[in-house]
């Protein structure tokens, strides 16, 4: 049970708080860089899929769509850049931002029928579906934990079943070479996947609140580790004569936030602690990014 709870916490952190604090799937109190790198790559691949879907279904029709697409492309490029630099946490952060805008276009857009059938890269499509198998297993775990926690997951479970069925139909289209149906069925599958993502976020938020007493101490432990590394890095950078003003500024802000969250946890004000964690996630991301920059400067 504990192992599966830790898996769910990892998903919560990805969807709600960020993945700088992902826990490995063995339930140990150590961050898994391999898992973070893998998740970063998975999200990059999903961005490529969303970009292709938007691009292949006719021109952008309104100024709002054009703006959304430009913002999505900006975050997409940043996600790729961070991935190439090995900064997987920020790559994930930018990927999630890009997805929001790609999905916004897909959710609002009326796709025009095309005279010629859409050409789909079948090999790439099958690969995407296979990779999503892990995602579906994670959703299934969330559903089970939700039931055990007394949370209503009926809508999430229904969307899960509908999405899996939609993916199965796409695979059948490929297997039986039903090319005339493939484009339409894949579009429907992606739309169901988006709906499933949205419902998953809501469920994870409820789970986060329901299990805040377990979740908050784990986050505090990760923050404590990050602050310890940050302090040592800043002191060493100062010793080498590097400019640490921004890093120190962010460190002080993050440390103040950490102490506040710790105080709330000590008083067992769990929901307030969770909200404080969510409010300050960007601050800890930025501090971590600045520390990484200092470390790279010292390596140079």
What would you say this structure looks like, in words?
With 300 residues, the protein is mostly helical. Among the domains are: 118-208; 212-299. 81% of the residues lie in helices and 0% in strands. The chain is built from eleven helices and no strands. α2 (33-56) packs antiparallel against α3 (63-85), α2 (33-56) runs parallel beside α4 and α8 (212-239) crosses α10 (270-279). Mean pLDDT is 78; it is low at 5-11, 13-34 and 110-119.
Structural class: mainly alpha
List the quaternary state of the chains. single chain
Question: How many strands?
Answer: 0
How much beta, percentage-wise? under 5%
Count of discrete alpha- or pi-helical segments spanning 4 or more residues: 11
Gyration radius, rounded: 21 Å
The span between the termini is: 45 Å
Helix and strand pattern = HHHHHHHHHHH
Search tags:
81% helix; mainly alpha; 300 residues
Topology:
Blueprint: H1 2-17, H2 33-56, H3 63-85, H4 88-108, H5 122-148, H6 154-175, H7 179-210, H8 212-239, H9 245-266, H10 270-279, H11 281-299
Helix pairs in contact: 1-5, 1-7, 2-3, 2-4, 3-4, 5-6, 5-7, 6-7, 8-9, 8-10, 8-11, 9-10, 9-11
